[in-house]
Amino acid sequence: MTNKWAPEEGQLERVTAKIVERHAEDEIFTGACSKNGCWDVCLLKGHVGKDGKVNAIETDNSIHPNCGREDEYCDFDDFVKGMYQKRACTRGRLLRSDVESPTRITQPMRRVGPKGPGATFEPISWDEALDEIARMYSETREKYGPLSVYCDGMMGKSWDPWGSYLPGGAVACWGEDSYESTNFADDIMYGHSADWIDQVDGIAEMQTFFDSKLIILFGLDTANNFTERTYYQMLAKEKGIPIIYIDPRFSWTAQAIATQWIPIKPGTDIALIFAMTYVLIEEDLVDHEFIEKFVEPEGYRKYVDMIMGNEPEWYCQGMASMEEPKTPEWAEQICGIPAETIRELARLYGKTSQEGPVYIRMIWAATRAIYGKDTARAFNVLQTICGNFGKKGCAGNGTGFGRRKGTHAPYSLMHVANGTGPYGETICMEAEAYNKAVLLHPKMESGEITKEEYCYEIGCSATGPMPNIHMICDIPSNRNLAAGWYGVNERLESLRQVDYFVYMHWNLKNATCCYADIVLPQTSSSMESPWNSLVYNLSFCNGINPGTHNHFILGDGKSKAPENTRYTWWIVKEIAVRLGIADEFCPNIKDMDNDELEEFIIKDASRIAYEAWCGYSPNAKNAPTWEEFMAQEERIFRWPMEDYFVYGMRQVQEGVPFNTKSGKIEYYNEFIADHDMRKAKIGASQRQLGCNDIKALPFYRKSPQGMQSPRTKQFPLYMITPHSPYRQHTAFDHSDWVRDEHRASIWLSVADAKARGIKDGDPVRVFSDCGEVQVTAYVTSRVTPGVTVLPFGRWYEPNSVKTDLMPDGIDTRGDCNFLISDDHYGDVKGSILCNALVQVEKLSPATLIANVSQFIQGEE
Amino acid sequence: MNQYGFFFDQSRCTNCHACSIACRDWNDIKGGSPVKLLRMMQWEKGNFPNLRMHVLFATCYHCEVPVCADACEHKAIFKEDKYGAVLVDPDLCEGDRNCWKACPYGAPAYEDDAPGTPMQKCNMCYDKLEIGELPICVSSCPQRALDFGPLEEMIERYGECRALEDMPSGDAVKPAAVFKPMHEHRQVVPYDAGRALELLADRGEYLDSVFGVAEDATEVYEGLVGYDKLVMKASSVAETLARSKNEEG
To answer: Which of A49, A136, A292, A448 could form a disulfide with A55 if both were Cys (CB 3.0 to 4.6 A apart)?
Structure first.
């Protein structure tokens, strides 16, 4: 066939030369996407252009090369063995816009003038900055005691690298930032070990989807959060496994993965779970054999009494709701799902469980609420009561986190620095309670609040040592405190009040910078250094919970970092030197400069770790030599899995006892029944709940932040705050590319929009009792009436209007955490709150005031 | 002449925009530019709680009958033989937009609405094809919802659907693309939407209901909801950019 549209002579060459030119001379390096979130740890191939900057990012092509629809070109067995491309998602691809950002921090800076938006900074030298930080660190501890410097931490640990090497030790925290409710439930029901990284086997490796007969997802918005698991779920869907997805929002998981979407009133999952459990007991669909073997019998009996509304003689105090049978008819009024559907869902779940495993999983978000711990505990019962535990085809524990025994990647950190020093750490607060610790301490000292009230607010035992925080040092953790957690206004106020705040970050648009005394510019992980940003290893990137546990990546970050940025470990080490603890903390690296340290990590520490791993790991059978590994263009090693792992297998299949008092799964918690929880410490990470609002059994209460709360008279909309596929937590929100792919909106249901005279695209103000944001309305049928959606992770961009609710200016970007207060309404602490009751009002365009520039002008 | 083409699986796409960001990255299109050589477009159909979200991989489909090339008076658009890629010659383009008028898919992209602004378009990642690799969008898709290869092979593998629901038919231009439509949702367990709406409206005895009658939640009038239809040819670059966004951020 002749080509009627063929180019003129020379035209093709002329046009295509320009196309080919752009990447013709790129140098390619390996990187690993390892920002906290999915933990999939995908392969990135960075292109570096002639100017030394990142010119493009590609992803894995080291297996099944150049196969677009990968599964079309390989055996299904490859997926069973975990042999597939570690293909990066949207987030990994955004690292270029992260490192090339026009608002990149390129210079250490000291604040001059007041804290807050518009703060001005002067450039300072590294020596000046580090000397001052070390001096303030020492002086603060001398003046206020060793528990006066907060560097973040969780799970009974500290992220203060230096404190445990100094007399008095460091502040450690209990609680987990992402999923403390679920973690608590798993801990007290299954028994975590204290060292969660090496010994908690939270995961169900994702081949499990293929072996399940039915998949039920409680709020698990896979498509938004877990890219690799989405792919495996997609393959499971295409195998014909039905997937039921319960969520207030018709997300892309509902559209692309689910066979059926069931909308639910948010925060009411516990009612649905209780009612499903009721049907399973009533119709005798529970797995008696499993229960007999693995569930503590007395607790099981009590749980059944509570669900069925039997008249027990052993009432837990304050559990009046136990008297009512938890029927589907009882639940439908609460959760908004018709009783018939609840009944049929329970039957389907129970009957399918008798034929084969069911993957049933609740995502942490459903428990990030007041009384969230009870929801997580009830869910663990629903999962185990039908025996869907510790078997292929099932989900892991609720935490879904941790790796199976045996290290799955070489571990290089130990060749760089030692772990905890001789003086240890003191668990004295809950991980997120630094704001309360700072703001309420003077009130406790002046007698305005009691010591007991203070302890409740910060998650400290009434008998234990209390922190007295005067310095916050956010160096290894570098969190976005103005966006990452609920109660932002209160957190910003605590940053104002604290004597000294040191912050390390990479982007000036992060409003947290405006509250810091010193800001340190960080070299990028992945793109500019071998540092992989995971605190658990250093150079080898394997993550904690990738989809399958059969690979690691060693990045070498060849993009040229701005001259005055530094590698995190160099900063940590330099402060250790100045504190006089380098000989104990990091003898191998104490004299290295930034470049030497990077080279040491790649060439020495990594080599030692790699070769050691090859010696002890059964997975190293076909591993290349170090030299061969380093010579690979895509520096990834993966091995075919002979089998996959599901949490609980060791207990269920090998008879290892659960790490609980009874050695079995405990539905009823005797420890809680027998102790004053204001004083007791519970679980592996020694939680200090500081209050008694927790019972031996989970129970249902109306939440003060729920859709049936009287507070809805003033704030009628229940706001949920899902993650975004464009951000890893808060990272990348500054990226222009991101902002071209979505509209920063708030979702409103058709009913709620009509009732307010709002149509799609209208500007609206969204406010609660603790904050206000102004954004655009997205009106859609995709959200349950009475529910509104403000995606999590947007950065604070204040305008010039300062109000009582927003003392530093109304947010114009839609940072949801301004609207969520740090008020737990007497519930036990630790749940990371991600929802709130809010109101939405239409704004006239004339009243809109643009955001002010808050960028700090550091003069180079 | 060879003809290569795309495959897009609507039932797998989660509208994550990894492909469109990869495209901008590879082609070095700066943030804030309305030029999107690949647009992921969404549109909503149905009413609460029975609805569907449609999504489309919208780029130049390098048609077998490139009417854009026919429309160009300056011979600035041609179709090369090796892959059948339709390419624009920036030296000859005068920005008079006859190609845009002719293209049923709105594929020609512009930095600006001003007359004379040069046209830009997808070049099938000609540079990648020349080194034996796939277009960047295809190799970037985390759900493997895209594929690329000789059009005949794509048809053989994935069938002959050349237009998804609501897309222009393509009969006249023969797009070098095949599509798989979204999967059907079904009730694995019975769900009475009418009863659910009653329950979802209810806040209990002492509080006002969430909404009044069922129609409050289900009836939609023109202009109320966003993305209520597929519009591949928007009237301005700003609208083009807006229609290629989603609400997931």
So the answer is: A49
Yes or no: say if A53 and A60 are a contact pair by the CB < 8 Å rule. Answer: no
pTM of the entire predicted model = 0.96
Tell me the per-residue pLDDT of A320-370, one tens digit each, with 9 for 90 and over.
556 789 999 999 999 999 999 999 999 999 999 999 999 999 999 999 999
The candidate with the shortest Cα–Cα distance to B181, out of B55, B61, B40, is B55
Chain B CB contacts of A746 below 8 Å: none
| pLDDT above 50 (res A860) | no
Where does residue B75 rank: exposed (0-12), middle (13-18), buried (19+ CB within 10 A)? Answer: middle
Q: Quick one: pLDDT at residue A817?
A: 98
Mutation target to probe the B interface, by most B beta carbons within 10 A, among A245, A255, A732 is A255
Domain count across chain B: 1
Residue ranges making up the domain that contains B68: 4-185+229-243
- ipTM of model: 0.98
Q: Considering the domain boundaries, does residue B213 fall inside one?
A: no
Q: Do B25 and A93 touch (CB under 8 A)?
A: yes
Closest CA to A763 of A713, A810, A727, A724: A810
CB of B157 within 8 Å of a chain A CB? The answer is yes
pLDDT of residue A244: 98
Name all domains of chain A by residue range, CATH numbers in brackets. 109-162+408-638 (3.40.50.740), 204-395 (3.40.228.10), 710-847 (2.40.40.20)
- HEC letters along A607-671: HHHHHHHHHHCHHHCCCCCHHHHHHCCCCEEECCCCCCCECCHHHHHHCCCCCCCCCCECCCCHH
In a domain, B18, yes or no: yes
Closest residue on chain A to B158 (Cα):
A72
Q: Is residue A764's pLDDT more than 90?
A: yes
The CATH number assigned to the domain holding B156 equals: 3.30.70.20
